[in-house]
């Protein structure tokens, strides 16, 4: 009698392994951070370019906070594994400053998409002698 159990197990493992590949993280959509700021990224095009809007919940200015435009790019290429690196710029509509963000989109152990970013904010200053205090 031929034993089919080992063959079926091997077949099951071979077919099931395909579904264990890394989950993809998609930038497009609405994102909210732990401070309550929210960002909307419209569709990422075939070249990785995207646009959207950012509404910050925090500001160092006394001006009324307004929704501000953002533009960015996601890394596209043959080595992309589904958790892309990206960068974008926010041109604040309510102040004389601009912020650049860089980061990566992850899928955590619970299947939730998470953005991890770092940023630099550049404020306008009156002259070159004040340059030292213009970037945070």
From TrEMBL:
Residues 1-22 form the signal peptide. Keywords: Biotin, Disulfide bond, Glycoprotein, Secreted, Signal. InterPro entries: Avidin, Avidin-like_sf, Avidin/str, Avidin/Streptavidin-rel. PROSITE patterns: AVIDIN_2. Pfam families: Avidin (PF01382). Disulfide bonds join 25-105. GO terms for molecular function: biotin binding. SUPFAM superfamilies: Avidin/streptavidin. GO terms for cellular component: extracellular region. Coiled coil: none annotated. Gene3D superfamilies: Avidin-like. PANTHER family: AVID PROTEIN-RELATED (PTHR34399:SF3), AVIDIN-RELATED (PTHR34399). Belongs to the avidin/streptavidin family. Homotetramer. This is Avidin. The lineage of its organism: Eukaryota, Metazoa, Chordata, Craniata, Vertebrata.
